[in-house]
Amino acid sequence: MTGASGPGGTPGGAPGGTPGGALLVVGDVVTDVVARHRGPLASGTDTAAVVRTVPGGAGANVACWAARRDGTEVRLLGKVGMDSAAWHERELATSGVRPLLVIDPEAPTGTVICLVDTGASAERTFLTDSGASLRLTPGDWSESLLDGVARLHLSGYLFFSEPCRALVAVAMESARARGVPVSVDPASAGFLTELGVDRFLALTEGVDILLPSRDEACLLTGLPDPADAAAKLSRHVPLVVVKQGGAGALVARSGEVLARVPAVPATPVDTTGAGDAFTGAFLAALLAGTRPDDAAAEGCRAGARAVEQVGGRPTTNA
């Protein structure tokens, strides 16, 4: 698949989509239960925590962060249960996203328990019940979903269930037929290991942009150094952007790292959704015609804002 190219000769120039078109995100919509605790969990007894229930899901988070950029039209295709469909629709619309939610009559909305250690790193551990979020099927797809769309983004979680993989194949075929570039965020090193690296790479053949985390990039290539991993991946995908958290981001194309983007200093409160924030801001900037290295800088700024709040979605003052 061939997307529109970035400005010739600019660092990291690569497919960016048609400025002015919409971003369609296909991915997971879940309910996050965030439990913030300090120090190790006390096995077999109580651990004091501050617990909040917030809307989440990697795909939905990406859409909400993308919609923060003025003038960006963002749509989200996802699947939820009857139990919380209205709430999720309202939350997405409030964030400026056009929700295209399919209601599953059998499964509840997915739920993720986010255990966040409130120490210096604010690292988190996820317990995931995917529920309806990984039950999207080709029957939920329509060619008309791409009307007016300049870029299609697929959450990596779609690759971890058979029905969603079938949907991905149909969506990518539709995008290819229309010349719409496709981006993918691998989403989970743990699930990638279960799926298998070779299988994931085969399923994502033809995408224009890959946005892995440092751990995901190293897992996908078998290389310990993220820069080497980014370079290797970019021999197969036109543009690779490796998210490194506090170490910033790497932008690679044609087997070479062309930009090392520094992180923005932040005081972490909850790192949930930081990578989603990066991806959403990056894609929105790219759609506006921003060079990939500058778009990655916007992604780093969004990631810094994300870690200084609780939950994976932007708050009104984020």
From TrEMBL:
Residue span(s) of domain Carbohydrate kinase PfkB: 23-314
PROSITE patterns the record matches: PFKB_KINASES_2
CDD domains listed in its UniProt record: KdgK
Keywords: Kinase, Transferase
Gene3D superfamilies given in the database record: 3.40.1190.20
SUPFAM superfamilies: Ribokinase-like
Keyword Transferase: yes
One GO MF term: kinase activity
Domain of life, source organism: Bacteria
Annotated region (Disordered), positions in chain: 1-20
Transferase listed as a keyword: yes
Family the entry assigns: Belongs to the carbohydrate kinase PfkB family.
UniProt-recorded name of the protein: Sugar kinase
Protein source organism: Streptomyces liliifuscus
